Model the fold of this input.
Amino acid sequence: MIQCVNEAYYALDGGKSFVPAKDHPEWDREAGRKNTIAYQIIADHNTSGDPANLQLKFDAIGVYDNTYVGIMQTACASGLKKFPVPTVFTNCHNCLCAVGGTINSDVHKYAETICKKYGGIFVPPHEAVIHSYMREMIVKGGSMAIVSDSHTRYGSQGCLAIGEGGPEVAKAMLDKTYELKYPQVVGVYLTGTPKAWVGPMDVALTLIGAVFKNGFVKNKVLEFVGPGVHSLSMDFRNGIDTMTTESACLTSIWETDDTVREDYRIHDREGDYKHLAPKDKALYDSFIHIDLDTVEPMIALPYHPSNAFPLKEVIANPRKYMKYVEDNAKTVFENNTDIHPDMMSKIQKNGRILVDQAAIAGCAAGSFENIAYVDQVAKAEKRGLGMFPLNIYPASQPVLTELNRAGISNDLMTEGVRIKTAFCGPCFGASDCPENNAFVLRHSTRNYPNREGSKPNMGQVASAALMDSKSIAATAFNGGYLTSAEEIKDVFQPEALPAFTFNKKIYDNVVYNGFGKAQPDVEIVYGPFIKDWPAMEHLTDNLLLQVASVIRDEVTTTDELIPSGETASYRSNPYKISEFTLLRKDPKYVGRAKAAQAYEKARLAGDKKTAEAFYAPLKNAGVDVEKDLDTLMETTGIGSVLYAKRPGDGSAREYAASCQKVLGGLANICIEYATKRYRSNCVNWGMLPFTHPDPEVDLKVGEFLWLPNIRQVVAENKGGIDATVIGIDGSTRTLHLDLKILNDTERKTLLAGSMINLFKES
Done:
């Protein structure tokens, strides 16, 4: 059972119970807001002096090999001298080194020398996924961290951590502040105890299914409290916490207790524990109650974690839910009309759904406890996997070492499980890509379209569902037939789990810990494919933009804006990776954007004849192009614009925005931005973050947007502009575009054309 109430609630007695705020008008609401855990931590890290408009400093920074090259190029170009706080570089996304020859190893060597020069912490490939290392070695109770990954969630350990795009992380490296209006805080009240066959993904999907599509917690802080918290192991809490990203919340924080203290002690860091609990009469802006007693095994069907259903319903009604997936695909692949996943073929004569493959991996599932439960299933079933492919990726070498010590790895490999090293690949399609038309299971963070590695531009499609590792194990050892852990519920014995110990020597022997030991004379090693960002122009007085893509799907993920998988190997070359922009969502986008960009290049080169051809439609808006050409060349920038209803759900990767900018994109238009971090990425790359409320906005590919005096609109923070749309037939119409009030840094960044320009000039 989950209950979501969109009204304020007070927590009493340290979060043991809740009451509606409307029942107690005599209590001081402002004082109550200061009693939350979130407020206590934020106040300790706010440097603005204004509790409503925050300027936060962080205690730790984390980056990984999918993002750190661009971040470092920005930070170095902006005058980085040394890292101000412990800054971790992991190599957990591109450690197969299977694409592009030496590209990935070149990037790893680049990061190693960066860490020596500026005093960073370098974690070699296959040692740990970013979030496991941060939990095991870095974060502290009552602290704040910023990491270049959307699944940055260390709230269960008492750290308020935020996943952000590269430019915001570069700002933290430069000891600048993170600017944010004080967010709303949602009280998540946990009661009861999960059944033995229910896992953390089941709880997480219950939450995500209830709050994502209605935006209930969007850009808010989730604060987990209540007696149910104490019924959960540390691995269980971490598994829920990681997945809160898929609810669209800003971040999360949990009350802490002796279970958390013991986890710090196991990791030889008991001094980093801090007891956290809401003070009496802490006021929450809204309220969620999850009764853990009632949570059941869940499944998130393709192509989003919010497509969450009770697993037993899907098993009982296979035709209904496989048709649901096929119908969903028609919208998801709207610009790839040749893609038609055949999910009905997965229903066998016995009425069960046959799954093709499964993986348990990464920050969501690579914990000791999750994998130990798979072993309990393997031992109980005693029949091996046969031809069913099940791959498991422990989240760190210390976890894998413990699995070896306890005999779990040997048990699982004997039964046919493939045990791999610490790698995020199954989560974003860099490993375990299944066959065409496959239906696969993942206990990882996302099941977006093509996130499992298929390429629709090549006529491929595969579909992934999210499930907890317990139900994945039940399925795998049942011949691949979709099976709920509840069907073998007596197998799961929490009391029989081996104790976990942590071997810190594993990291001592291989991790370079250079924090506080910067060596300025070290030369950075650049591989041949590491290219700097292109020059970016300041915002011109006026803009003429051509619509390069119109996407009508309800949500456009960052995976669709810039694909994951092998594409990520090219992240050190802004030009090369930009070629993949919207490849799976709108394959014609890159060509259209480049065509508009060619005219901007002509303008900058002084080629009047070529630029005039792009300006020609302005005649329909009353501009005498021939007479005013010299003025247009000086004052009117040329570029492209993307429309999507709600873009940016998912990853924090900055390339979802920077690739558009590299291709000459100068603006996004949407109903709303799916996440704060994607909007921030757009701003930091100098792209105007317009919104327009009409879900059926009248825009077509190839039309033009005339934005006169746009620089003045931004400079004076006017909040919007009446643009002129010039149709393909020459007709004109007015379209009001909102430009929500910008903070001072956002305004300066847009005027400068990018955050890089702003920092260079300051």
